[in-house]
Amino acid sequence: MIALIQTLVLALDLYWWIIIASAIFSWLYAFNVVNPRNQFVGTIGNMLFKLTEPALRPIRRFMPDLGGIDISPIILLLALFFVRQFLLTTVLPLVA
Fold first, then answer.
1. With contact defined as beta carbons under 8 Å apart, do 12 and 83 qualify?
2. Dihedral of the CA atoms 60, 24, 19, 71 (nearest 10)?
3. Alpha helices of the chain — where are they, by DSSP H?
4. pTM
5. Is the separation of the CB atoms in 25 and 48 below 8 Å?
6. 22: helix, coil or strand?
7. Dist. CA 64–CA 61, nearest whole Å
8. Rounded Cα–Cα distance for residues 79 and 71 (Å)
9. 80, 15 Cβ separation under 8 angstroms
């Protein structure tokens, strides 16, 4: 059971970095730092979008319009942090 919890924590940590990479990529894309017509850039952007959008869409649905500022990745990161800490501080001691 400990191995399962550690695997879940690792998956949460990897998804944490994917969300951060997606946010940074969206800034680079919005400010024309990366070439949007480059096939490699498009592939990376599409992959990051498909990995993060299913988790961000429900958050965006309930968030008020902040006029161009998207804080849904921050809310998702806070939720992931909460789940990670819950697993490590509450569930893991019960199993160990």
1. yes
2. -30
3. 2-30, 39-62, 72-86, 92-95
4. 0.91
5. yes
6. helix
7. 8
8. 13
9. yes
What does the alpha-carbon distance between residue 25 and residue 31 come to, in Å, rounded to a whole number?
10
Please classify residue 63 by burial: count the beta carbons closer than 10 Å to its beta carbon, then call 0-12 exposed, 13-18 middle and 19+ buried: middle
Which of 69, 60, 76 minimizes the C-alpha distance to 15?
A: 76
Scanning the structure block, which residue is given the tokens 């969300």? 19
- Tens of pLDDT along 16-45? 999 999 999 999 998 989 988 999 999 999
The tokens for 65 are: 């319009």
Angle at 10 between CA 92 and CA 16, to 5 degrees: 115
Distance CA 80, CA 54 (A): 14
The residue to which tokens 């990366």 are assigned: 34
